[in-house]
Write a structure and sequence with these properties.
The chain has 442 residues and is α/β, with parallel strands linked by helices. It folds into three domains: 12-161, Rossmann fold (3-Layer(aba) Sandwich), CATH 3.40.50; 178-272, no CATH class; 276-441, no CATH class. Helix content is 55%, strand content 9%. It is built from 19 helices and eight strands. A six-stranded parallel sheet has the order 1-3-4-5-2-6, with helices on both faces. The longest helix has 40 residues, at 333-372. The protein is globular and about 70 Å long.
Length: 442
Amino acid sequence: MPGGGRTRERLGRVPAEVTGLVGRRSDVAEVRRLLSSARLVTLTGTGGSGKSRLAVRAAAELRRAFADGVWVVDLADVTEAALLHYAIAEELGIGPSERPLPDALLEHVRDREMLLVLDNCEHLVDECAAFADRALRTAPGLRVLCTSRRVLGMAAEHVWDVAPLGVPEQGQAYDSGAETRYPGVALFVERAAAVAPWFALDAENWPTVAEICRQLDGLPLAIELAAAQLRTLSLGQLATGLREHFRHLSTRHAVPARHRGLDSAFDWDFELCSPGEQALWQRLSVFTGTFELSAAEYVFEEPVLDLLAGLIEKSVLCRVESADGLPRYRLLETVRRYGLDRLRSAYGADEERRLRRRHRDWYVDLAEQYDADWFGPRQTQWAARMRAEYANIRAALDDSLSTPGGADTGLRLAAALRFHWYAGGAGHEGRYWLERALNAGS
């Protein structure tokens, strides 16, 4: 592997882990082994299998192996293929250049020894493949690690399937080494004890825990969501609820077997929510990335603090601390997609369009406040806030310029972001949006 002996200051950015990674020691070792020889590795697997967590852990352990750092680019919030290069450039800190951005990116990585992680590539597979192909041909010291539900389909690609965690077969007896042998059970026990400190695995509750983990197909996200319900339910209630859902799910022949464990966990979590929490979950699905309380209340059109607290308690919603100390909130991407599917099936396209208009209007107003206040005493605070809001601003731009009659609103929003792009060194992206807005209005 390149670069281990160089003394250049080590760079890069890898997200910090909030909770430990359970049952993936051999997978991490295999990913590291693959990257020691292969220049392009893709981790594939169904939603909720833990691809992103595995990639981040492997990347963190490889920091010292790359003189120019390990960089993780989360593409879940990149709603449009044309924005792939901007997202990568932003993470790598590439400022304005006279060159087209793809060429500037290639020049940046040309002589560097670095690992680039492209996380959540499935909706940008063709674009990620094209970028990886050009970058790997240009930069001999570059390695690329992707996570995706779909392979990139490149000849140089080495694929590692991220399998579900191991769970016991039906009838498997309990013994003191059960947690060690079955990582799915170990994950359930760890997450259960985090929300219910009294919980411990023993011979009496072993059959119930084993059944829950089997029903959820060993999918880490599904297991974590289920274990979080022990805040309010007994283990028996948890198992009974899942059992009933699987009985209903067996009639849904259109659902692939590999998705039923996660779908069942989401279905049941949804039904455990109050009607107000269900409605909020669905409406929050129009947000991309993190959002603040006031934005949620504007889109929902009612006070939401108590409902947000309920969704956080049920592990549906994540609280994220921001630089200014004010809480922000986020739905995990798989949870967001589930909520969006529920919204569409329950209320239809008209309601989704209405919510997206409210979402867009909120961010247009915010951007215009920012633009008007740029030369005031709060410039630093505004700049930090707009960085935090930018995933949603991008989504609002795309929605405006993709919707008939939305070009004028899109142009207003793009014009209000001039200082954000200029001060942030994102002139390439600003030019893209302004040109698109002008073309949409012509």
